[in-house]
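Dear Dr. V.,

Thank you for agreeing to look over these. As mentioned in my earlier message, I'm a first-year student in the group and I'm still getting used to reading structure tokens, so any feedback on how I've presented them would be very welcome. I ran two proteins. I've put each sequence directly above its structure. The first is here:
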Amino acid sequence: MIHATRAAVRQWLDVLLHIHDSPRRTAAAYALGVFFGFSPFLGLHTALALTCAFIFNLNRVAVLVGVYSNLPWILAPYYTLTTMMGAELLGTHVPKAFATQLEDLFALSLLHSEFWRRLAILLRPLLWPYTVGSLIGAVVLAMLAYRLALAFVIARRRHPYFLRRAPTGSHGSSRPSGRKQPDQKRD
């Protein structure tokens, strides 16, 4: 009974996580995660990425690893640089005395509505530069992530350790030997 339950759970996890994809699909899943992780949809990135992973039947683990590539200490510099790039592309200028207004703003309590009202007024001119800049940055990073992930997954699957443990059957795309078999497609 325990073996049957384990087998059922493994099968369910394989379907849910979709971990036996080809290297291209795994790299695409990671790149999709990177795109959403660095997109302007801050706060919604996990839900949007997983929704797309389910719609396109992609590896959910690779998508989540990509989403969480955007680490907390990267957030501020990344969004600052991409907003500046967006402002340059759109010809938008940073409001005068922006730094002073920002300092004054943080003298207020985060719990008061005045803080949030003034923050919205201060950041409103930067909304489009933020959106455009971070979308461009997310696309560039996703393309780079795809190339790197594809090279990594292919190299990893060619490693002797993984060749010995290669899955077989309808879900497996790895082959036990490094040579192409006549009836199999190359990934």
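The second protein is here, in the same arrangement:
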Amino acid sequence: MNGIGNGLSQWSFFRPIMSKRTHRGSSFREFLREDGLLEEIEAKALKRAIALQLELLRKEQSLSKSTLALRMNTSRAAVDRLLDTSNPSVTLITLEKAARALKRKLKLELVPA
């Protein structure tokens, strides 16, 4: 019997197997940690969040990148690198300059891991 005539779908025999499955592996975060990638990925995510926030503030204040660079006493290329979400490199000095140029205060905090 194929299960179709009795009101069951042809795939009903998979349900008991599928319903008994539970998450057996470690979390994705643990997977990344084991592969030595977690710190790099977290750093890139943090840089992306900062770059997006700086870009939003720049646009809210109607500042061009050139004007921001002038206020930061740096080059337009340095501002481009700062706002580039795919470039994870940034220094605290650059962040402080950007914060001041955007009339903000930089606040860093160390929290328990």
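From my reading of the second output: The radius of gyration is 25 Å. The chain has six helices and no strands. Does that match how you would interpret it?

Kind regards,
E.
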